[in-house]
Design goal:
The complex is a heterodimer of chains A (about 550) and B (about 650). Chain A has about 550 residues and is of the alpha/beta class. Chain A is about 60% helix and about 10% strand. In chain A, strand 9 (about 505-510) and strand 10 form a beta hairpin. Classes of the chains: A alpha/beta (about 550), B alpha/beta (about 650).
């Protein structure tokens, strides 16, 4: 600012005329400053916004290619916290920190130049303070990093706790656990408070010590410089000028604490983001040109074994199986037998090893991922719906479909009646902010989502569990005509479902125990036959027709 | 037959909370909001007061340090020793010169060293006191907000489950986390502003005493700043709203994409979804740019105003003062005062964005605290007997979630102590509603439900739920160990008892197979347990609590046959000797029960034992026959 010079000129003892002129000069400086500073600030803050934009894009792009392995390490809530809070920390560093940075670099540079020019001896006096300052800054920034990390972690805990609790609020209330939950929340809440206070203390110490060091430098110069003036070795003007320069030097040091905080927190943030951005995509998309463009649906499992990363036991052990084009295959087995794993290998939702699974004679790994997943349509066990209209949910892979195509797949999934009962019909928004569907309705919607794709291969992972048997029969009947000579693979626990298949594969502890038609397997009188007996005799698995329901205390 | 789960609620409860965002007033300054925040700071008012005193002290030290440099060092010691002509306009020295003289005599040292000592003491004072000021301030705010968060959480816990039928958990959650965070930023900022105002008033006072006229001219700038702030707020309100909306749209999009990642990948939607996200992200960036244009213009305007103020002082005041020959130290001090005068104004401008954001957050927090949906609790609660016999009676219960649709019509049934009742009926027939009413999840006006002869509406809802064991379809696993999940904070349940319960319901074996047995940490929502295992755990949890009355909503989820057998066996043991009301989906479960109640469109159609109902050849037997028909198909050619 021009004030320093004005004051300097003032002490030169010139008259009020000059003061007027100086005021004018300073006014034009103000205008210039207004323009420059405004522009510069705008650029810097725009840069912050632009970086946040880029980071968000990068995070979104990165998670799109991750699989279950990745999400088991970093949960959805955690990724959300990182995408919101940690990006904000980096944005803040750019928007606010870069200004600090420029001041911290420039101001001392100018100040020291001027000071050495006026009095090298006096300048030397403050030099010993600088290493102490830097040493302290280095040390405290490490403290800052440690405490910031704890704060970020406690914050994640806090969010997770609230999210988890509110998601299960019905159980909490049904079990009368409110008091306990509130007491438990107190611990998380208080832990965050404590961590936060610790961080604030380090921050405050920093804001106390840094200016103190600066002040000591100031004191030494004042006393020593004053002595010089008194001894007539220095002019008063020089001392005053020196003091102004010193202020220029020390001001950024006072601000350094804030800067260090910004930097440290941004470092913590960027590390956490790095874990997302630098994670290798689990499934490598390295297609070769030799694969056919259209999959016809003949599968071959050649000595297929699969072990999840980090698991000690293989989930699947040397499976050998040929699935002909147009066959319908049922897969059955108890929990942990490897059914879902096998299905995931077909669409490479897990990292399928090379040379174990062939489609139409080509290794599944050689197909472009997009082609594989568009021509092998898979319906998952967990009926996930997006908070969008039913139409978008059903025609999810290709939003541009005609409405009659959407309706006909809804028909095939026995969903027409349900949809017609809603006032908005196909435009009915489902999910948290829309109509709540029952489990069966959800399953049938996801089924429609799979059917609409008319893919050469259809894989159904136990997606009739909440659908009553009668409706299921109806759907399976339609499916037979619809699918014609296309390959269908389905997992089910119900013998009543499985018997519709050409062949049934019984998985047991990761191995194929039996393969054959319903009749053949019954004749073989082994696991499948036993299953059939248990289910028919006790009426165990078969739910009461028409009594099947998904209406619980919580709207499903 | 429609399968639609009723989502319509009682009119009083019927509020779409997702729309609440739009209801936020966005007022320019909401005084009411501050008053409400103060409520949570009240317990810490002594600490806050102390913090206030400390900031006064430390700021005073800072101001005095300036005085020591300018007036004592430059004027008294250096210039004073060189020239003897006293200036006509004397800037105050706030007794610092006298203090230095006194120090000189007391310590018997040269004036310059005495000034050094004085400066040092003030510096240490300002440092230490400043540190304590910050600590006390942060401590009061952190504790106050922690309490606010706790109260907010407790308030949310107390909302009835019907309330959560209509709200998105994510949106409620951010009020407890992010919104409270922004309040911290605001309070902390306001706290440090106080420190800026001390030098402001000192400077103002001294300037006033120097030149009233000049000070008044300067004060004219205050309404200009105020007006600019108001205009800025008006102009930016819409933009800020758009920024907020796009940010929440971004988060929602990301969250949904993450939750449905498998579907996204299987549908090959990665690219399209990224495009959709990019669109929102771009829109957000556009609004963000627009909002900084405004706020930067505002900041620059404030800065300029400060500089104009300086110009006025130099032009008006300094010129005048210099004509009367102000001392050199006086001039230095004068320039320092100018900075002190305008610092708080600039700082206020910088705080403004934080302030606005915090106000929006504050509104959301208090809006959540104002959600008042609740279950009606009795004024003079009845007390349930120490040990229930387990007699449950529904007497002519009518209920509908809204005025038009009646879900239960004149439902009456008596369950004798220790008896088991199966409720069957198509979806939407009101089975779940019956047990919701028994668990006091909804209020009802017509009819009564008695437990051991006590009307449940006369008992605190929490008391009812504590005494009745409930197993829901949707098992919620709390994070913690397996043991924690069985004990659920119940002091009566010891480790031995929990293990005993787990053994009884066949959960022991799979628990032992876990890495650390009973001490295995479970992740959120029990993702590392299978459906069947979770159900067994839920049985163990209820059995350990040993309630006299058991409500069970049987899960329909697909479970492999072997686990199914374990579950059926566990269920049998769980119900043994306990009054049980079961929404049954499996034939075998129904056969375990003493009586079956067939519900159809909210009415009790049939009631009796399994055999009696079969003999009646009514609704139940039709349903039952359908079942057998299905089985006989299976048996084609393989009749056993």
């Amino acid at each position: 600012m021009g004030i320093d010079e004005i004051a300097l000129q003032l002490q030169g003892g010139e008259g009020p005329h000059t003061v007027g002129a100086i005021a004018l000069i300073s006014m034009s400086c103000v205008v210039g400053r207004f323009l420059f500073v405004t522009y510069a600030r705008r650029m810097i803050r725009r840069a912050g916004i632009a970086v946040a934009y880029d980071l968000r894009q990068a995070v979104y792009g990165a998670v799109q290619h991750q699989g279950s392995e990745f999400f088991s390490h970093i949960g959805v809530g955690d990724i959300m916290t990182r995408a919101i809070q940690d990006i904000a920390l980096i944005q803040r560093l750019i928007a606010n920190g870069s200004v600090h940075f420029i001041i911290i670099i420039y101001a001392p540079l100018f100040a020291i130049t001027f000071m050495s020019w006026k009095s090298p001896a006096l300048t030397m006096l403050i030099l010993p303070v600088l290493p102490i300052l830097f040493g302290y800054a280095w040390w405290i920034s490490r403290e800052m990093a440690a405490t910031s990390k704890v704060v970020q972690e406690r914050l994640s805990d806090l969010s997770a706790h609230v999210q988890e609790n509110l998601s299960g609020i019905r159980t909490v209330q049904a079990m009368a656990q409110e008091e306990n939950e509130i007491a438990r929340f107190w611990q998380t809440n208080d832990a965050y408070g404590v961590a936060f206070y610790r961080q604030a203390r380090v921050q405050s110490l920093m804001s106390a010590w840094m200016p103190l060091f600066a002040g000591i430098a100031q004191l030494v110069i004042l006393v020593y410089g004053g002595k010089l003036v008194l001894d007539d070795e220095m002019s008063v003007g020089d001392l005053v000028f020196f003091l102004f320069c010193l202020n220029m030097l020390l001001q950024p040091i006072r601000m350094a604490g804030m800067f260090i905080t910004l930097v440290q927190r941004a470092i913590v943030g960027s590390r956490r983001l790095g874990e997302i951005l630098e994670a290798e995509p689990e499934i490598a998309d390295t297609p070769t040109r030799k694969t056919p463009d259209i999959i016809t649906g003949a599968f071959e499992l050649r000595d297929l074994s699969f072990t999840y990363p980090g698991a000690s036991e293989p989930s699947l052990k040397s499976l050998n199986l040929v699935i002909e084009h147009g066959e319908s295959i049922g897969i059955v087995g108890r929990v942990g037998a490897g059914k879902s794993t096998l299905l995931k290998l077909f669409t490479r939702m897990v990292d399928t090893p090379k040379g174990v699974l062939y489609i139409d004679g080509s290794d599944v790994c050689d197909f472009p991922l997009m082609q594989l997943r568009s021509q092998v349509a898979q319906v998952l066990q967990d009926p996930f719906l997006f908070g969008e209209p039913l139409r978008n949910n059903i025609s999810y892979d290709e939003p541009g479909r005609r409405i009659d195509q959407v309706w006909s797949s809804a028909d095939a999934a026995a969903l027409r009646g349900t949809i017609e009962s809603f006032p908005a019909q196909m435009e009915t928004v489902v999910g948290e902010r829309g109509v709540t569907l029952s489990g069966g309705q959800k399953q049938r919607t996801t089924l429609a989502r799979g059917l609409i794709r008319e893919a050469p291969v259809l894989i159904l992972d136990d997606c009739f569990s909440s659908v009553d048997t009668e409706t299921e029969e109806h759907i399976l009947g339609r499916l037979k005509t619809m699918r014609g000579d296309r390959t269908t693979i389905l997992v089910s626990h119900r013998v009543s479902t499985l018997r519709h298949c050409d062949r049934i594969v019984v998985l047991n502890e990761g191995e194929i125990a039996e393969v054959g038609s319903h009749e053949a397997l019954l004749r073989a009188d082994r696991i499948y036959a036993e299953l059939e007996r248990v289910q028919t005799q006790s009426g165990d698995r078969s739910q009461l027709d028409d009594l099947s329901t998904d209406e619980g205390l919580s709207p499903a | 037959m429609s399968e639609t789960v009723p989502t319509i609620k009682k009119p009083a409860l019927r509020r779409d909370h997702s729309m609440f965002e739009a209801e936020l007033s966005g007022a320019v300054l909401n005084v009411h909001l501050f008053v409400r925040i103060l409520h949570w700071l009240k317990p810490y008012k002594l600490i806050l007061a102390l913090s206030g005193v400390l900031v006064l002290l430390s700021s005073a030290c800072t101001v005095l340090m300036e005085v020591v440099i300018s007036r004592v060092l430059v004027d008294y010691i250096i210039t004073g020793s060189q020239s003897q002509d006293a200036p006509q306009v004397e800037m105050p020295d706030l007794y610092m010169i006298d203090l230095t003289r006194w120090l000189e005599n007391w310590l018997e040292m040269e004036p310059i060293y005495a000034a050094g000592v004085l400066f040092f003491v003030l510096m240490i004072g300002s440092t230490i006191v400043g540190h304590w000021h910050r600590l006390t301030l942060v401590s009061a705010i952190v504790h106050g907000l922690r309490d606010l968060r706790q109260d907010l959480f407790a308030h949310l816990e107390a909302r009835p489950s019907s309330f959560y039928d209509n709200v998105a958990v994510g949106r409620v959650m951010t009020r407890v986390t992010n919104d409270v965070e922004s309040l911290y930023e605001m309070l902390r900022g306001m706290g440090s502003l106080v420190g800026e105002f001390v030098p402001f008033f000192v400077a103002l006072g001294i300037m006033l005493s120097t030149s009233v006229e000049m000070t008044l001219v300067l004060l004219c700038l205050v309404p200009v700043v105020g007006g600019a702030t108001y205009l800025f707020r008006q102009a930016s309100r819409e933009t800020f709203r758009l920024v907020r909306n796009t940010v929440s749209a971004l988060n929602q999009n990301l969250q949904e994409n993450l939750s449905g990642m498998q579907v996204v990948q299987l549908s090959g939607r990665e690219k399209r979804n990224l495009e959709g996200y990019t669109r929102i992200n771009k829109t957000n960036r556009r609004y963000e740019y627009r909002s900084i244009n405004l706020s930067i213009f505002y900041g620059a305007f404030n800065d300029t105003l400060a500089s104009i103020g300086l110009g006025i002082i130099i032009w008006y005041g300094a010129g005048e003062a210099l004509q009367q020959e102000m001392s050199l130290g006086g001039v230095i001090l004068f320039t320092r005062f100018m900075t002190m005068l305008f610092n708080p104004v600039v700082a206020l401008g910088e705080q403004l964005n934080i302030l606005f954001r915090a106000m929006a957050s504050g509104e959301r927090i208090f809006q959540a605290l104002d959600w008042d949906e609740q279950i009606h609790e009795p004024e003079t609660p009845a007390v349930l007997p120490e040990r229930l016999k387990g007699h449950v009676e529904f007497r002519s219960v009518d209920f509908g979630y809204d005025a038009e649709t009646q879900i239960l019509k004149d439902v009456s049934v008596v369950v004798e102590p220790g008896k088991r009742l199966a409720i069957v009926g198509p979806t939407g027939s009101g089975k779940s509603t019956m047990i919701r009413l028994l668990g006091r999840f909804y209020d009802f006006d017509h009819g009564m439900i008695f437990v051991d002869g006590v009307d449940v509406q006369d008992v605190f809802s929490s008391e009812v739920r504590r005494r009745i064991g409930v197993v829901l379809q949707d098992f919620h696993i709390f994070s913690g160990t397996i043991l924690d999940n069985i004990v659920l904070g119940n002091p009566a349940v010891t480790r031995e008892r929990a293990i005993e319960a787990a053994k009884t319901v066949n959960a022991h074996a799979f628990i032992l197979r876990q890495e650390n047995g009973y001490d295995t940490e479970l992740v959120e929502r029990g993702a590392n347990l299978s459906q069947g295992q979770r159900q067994l755990l839920a049985f163990a949890r209820v059995l350990a609590a040993d309630p006299e009355v058991l409500i069970l909503d049987e899960a329909t989820a697909s479970i492999d046959t072997e686990t199914e057998i374990l579950i059926q066996d566990g269920l049998r043991k769980l119900m043994a000797g306990r009054t049980s009301i079961v929404i049954a989906h499996r034939l075998q479960t129904i056969q375990e029960c003493d009586h079956v109640l067939v519900l159809h469109y909210g009415e009790v159609k049939e009631y009796g034992s399994h055999e009696e109902l079969l003999a009646m050849k009514g609704l139940y037997s039709t349903l039952h026959e359908l079942q057998f028909q299905d089985v006989s198909l299976d048996e084609d050619g393989y009749a056993s």
